[in-house]
Amino acid sequence: MDDRPTGWRTRIPRERARPRWVRESPVSWQLAVLTVCFGGFMSQLDASIVTLTYPSLEREFGERLAAVQWVSLVYMLVTAAVLVAVGHVSDVLGRKLVYLHGFGLFALSSAACSLAPDLTTLVCFRGVQALGAAMLAGNSVALVSLVAPREKLRTALGMQAGGQALGLAVGPTLGGVLVSTVGWRWVFWINVPVGVLATLLGRYLLPRTVERAGGARFDLRGTVWLAVASAALLGGVSVFSGTPLPVWSGVVLLAVSAAAFRGFARREARAPEPLVPLSLLGDRRVGWGLVGALAGYLVLFGPLVLVPLVLTRYGESEMRAGLLLGALPAAFALASNLQEHLLPRRWDGRRRALTGAALSMAGLLGLAFATPVDRWLICWLAVLGLGLGLFTPSNNETLMRAVPRELSGTGGGLVNTARALGTALGIAVVTLTLELGDGRGAGSVLPPLPVLTLAAAAALAGAATLRAGR
């Protein structure tokens, strides 16, 4: 394909090649995957670390919690709104180019956040920071899928998923340390040197884009429809996750999302160069793979949020609760990176994903009967993490193999949008549980309501694997 820019991309700079010694190295793909994992870790870390700044922001700016929560909410909404569009743009302009500019924007906006004189300014810069994070997250799966050898794709996607999950899990602990020692502004300042380092690493370790999608005309109307649909859907779910908005607003947002998704589908069916080809979503492996990605993150985030809340209500310290909960992301990262050694090599992706879904259900059931003082608690958390670590990369491998290489950025954006929605749904399950009861159930770590919901999600993930594999 002609690599010369055309149409709306004529003024975009070209990507630079890696040094020859990197290209010819037998571990070049591993270095590239580690660079991508670094970006995924940072983007997800920043999504979770900011919650620890709420008390300090309330005191310094004299604002109520309802206003302060927009620091996190705007990040989540902007990211969900632009993920797919960013993936499409990277398919046209170059995935390395968009990724590196994303890290630069992420670092600059982080510096601006740290210098914000008031809450309104901070919220605005958080929106810009979210755009940079979307340029990282929307490209992560695509870059890994393109750089890893075919026989190593599942392992590489496992590394990427483990990096994201670890960032989300480490965020609260690191945020607590920074806020309690050097202040809330360092939660943002720490991103600046990291962003500079990651940009340099990406410049030399990430490969240029070889296969590009056509893109003489940008589907702006399709982008707007999808952005409204995604943001309204995530915002509607967030209303039931403790967001300081009335319940009726959540119903309205969900209705707006449904109408916008319908408008998006009609637009894409007529667009000469659609943002997301409907044939891509019509592929069974892609459609059911997205369902599996959503269900997997729903299962992950229910316990990540609920377990520490229940433990602290039973008198455990935040430090001990965090250490116990660490078994979940640690096992996730272990299984996603070492699954080739944990399961028979002859097993295909579907069998591995089904095994992961079954282990996830076993871990959830164990947590349903475990008490906060149960010595088996950490074991059940680890079983759940192992299951999700086996399921996630296998599910993503099946999905990304079905996506044409020139549309890998669009496919990666869809995956991360599904993950964001699964995250919001998992938090919503926890919030509803705490609203309907005291969150303790019959003395167990996971009360009956979330267990049933999360187990259903794990079963749905397994069903999605079966459907995608037919």
What's the quick description here?
By secondary structure, the chain is mostly helical.
Structure description:
- The protein has 470 residues and is mainly alpha-helical.
- 76% of the residues lie in helices and 0% in strands.
- Helix 17 packs antiparallel against helix 18.
- It is globular, with a radius of gyration of 21 Å.
- The N terminus is likely disordered.
- It is found in: Cell membrane.
- InterPro entries: MFS (IPR011701), MFS_dom (IPR020846), MFS_trans_sf (IPR036259).
- Keywords: Antibiotic resistance, Cell membrane, Membrane, Transmembrane, Transmembrane helix, Transport.
Indicate the radius of gyration in whole angstroms: 21 Å
Could you give the order of the helices and strands? HHHHHHHHHHHHHHHHHHHH
Q: What is the tally of helical segments?
A: 20
Q: In terms of structural class, how would the helical and strand content be classed?
A: mainly alpha
Largest sheet: none
InterPro entries: MFS, MFS_dom, MFS_trans_sf
Subcellular location: Cell membrane
Protein name: MFS transporter
Membrane topology: Multi-pass membrane protein
